[in-house]
Amino acid sequence: MKVDGKHYRSIWLGSDGWSVCAIDQRRLPHEFVVAKITTCEEAADAIRGMLVRGAPLIGATAAFGMALGMRDDRSDPGIDRAYEMLIATRPTAINLKWALDTMSTMLRRLAPSERRDAAYARAVDIAGEDVTINRGIASHGLALIEAAAARKKPGEAVNVLTHCNAGWLATVDWGTATAPIYLAHDSGIPIHVWVDETRPRNQGASLTAWELGHHGVAHTVIPDNTGGHLMQHGMVDLAIVGTDRVAANGDVCNKIGTYLKALAAHDNGVPFYVALPSPTIDFAVAEGRQIPIEQRSAQEVTEMTGRTSDGRIETVRIVPPGSPVANYGFDVTPARLVTGLITERGVLQADGAALAAAFPERARPTNY
Q1: Averaged pLDDT, 335-343
Q2: How far apart are the first and last CA of the chain?
Q3: Which chain positions carry the site (Transition state stabilizer) (predicted)?
């Protein structure tokens, strides 16, 4: 997508042909910085420290991390070390494991002398596949926005509520939840996005608002607790969110606070959609309650970083010293609250049968 008129992906192979470049999302929206990743350890640190984040981008970064690992050690133990280092970084997003399993399986079939070049080629393919998948999500989600637009008065904007950042910064390009929004905007459909700030890391206020603004999409940042009020007053036409893992039965695990938005949408008759690439589906997990929920540092809650009036970037404490903090990174929205799952193969019902029918090559035999 565009930054100051120039197209960027969130991650790409460096001009030297072996290092990896990624937008440092910790520095946004105050600074645009491109980080250079040169080792598997640095790739793991980038994922763990949230230099990169978002389930699809985590998967792509892990694939590049495996390729960097093959520069140092192409042996079977070298594959194991790279895999274990990267898999330990983030427990909730299933794309991480999918990408690492894909890379590991492919590499073990090759002679050590072939592994480095093959790893780079496959990592580049995984990144490219993510872009293609998200473009498919955009096309299928566009139909939902077009239908909403048809119910509006001429020139009246379609109002979409989103949560956290499921934009191009969370993927390699296009995004998941934002992909239909960008395509609708580029197609000339009047559209406006309600952007949840998404505490505690403010990924909506910091990232979604930043990328929507750079692309010229009308948007308004709102406190996390505002969505229900907007829905009660008919100010939301549909909600579209992303997800870090979808269970085999259609339960959706996404950024903390998503469940509350789904409940409000259900109570007010607002369609609630989840946009996801197929690698985010975990057919090995029967239901959402089995998904491990990451608990993150208390510091994310106790401190906030921003730009002062004189231009300095400062971090300040907002919680009294000694107050305990719980910081659950994700929650699970039951499939019954999801209007539909927007995938690269169409808009599906949020249930096991629909998921298995759409992706039979990945589904496990079961009694849906």
Answers
A1: 98
A2: 39
A3: 164
Active-site entry in 244, 251, 282, 331: 244
pLDDT score for 365: 55
Task: Flag whether 53 is marked binding.
Answer: yes
Which CATH class, in words, describes the domain spanning 139-358? alpha beta
Residue 55 is assigned to a ligand binding site: yes
**What pLDDT digit, counting tens, does each position of 79-116 carry?**
999 999 999 998 887 899 999 999 999 999 999 999 99
349 is in an annotated binding site: no
Q: How would you write the chain as a 3-class SS string?
A: CEECCEECCCEEECCCCCCEEEECCCCCCCCCCEEEECCHHHHHHHHHCCCCCCHHHHHHHHHHHHHHHHHHCCCHHHHHHHHHHHHCCCCCCHHHHHHHHHHHHHHHCCCHHHHHHHHHHHHHHHHHHHHHHHHHHHHHHHHHHHHHHHCCCCCCCEEEEECCCCCHHHCCCCCCCCHHHHHHHHCCCCEEEEEECCCCCCHHHHHHHHHHHHHCCEEEEECHHHHHHHHHCCCCCEEEECCCEEECCCCEEEECCHHHHHHHHHHHCCCEEEECCHHHEECCCCCHHHCCCCECCCHHHHEEEEECCCCCEEEEECCCCCCCCCCECEEEECHHHCCEEEECCEEECCCHHHHHHHCCCCCCCCCC
Q: pLDDT of 311-330, one tens digit each?
A: 999 999 999 999 999 999 99
pTM for the model stands at 0.92
Annotation marks residue 16 as catalytic: no
Question: What does the pLDDT read at residue 363?
Answer: 83
- Which CATH number among 1.10.510.10, 1.20.120.420, 1.10.10.10, 3.30.70.1050 corresponds to the domain 2-129? 1.20.120.420
- 299 assigned ligand-binding residue: no
135 is in an annotated binding site: no
The domain ranges of the chain are: 2-129, 139-358
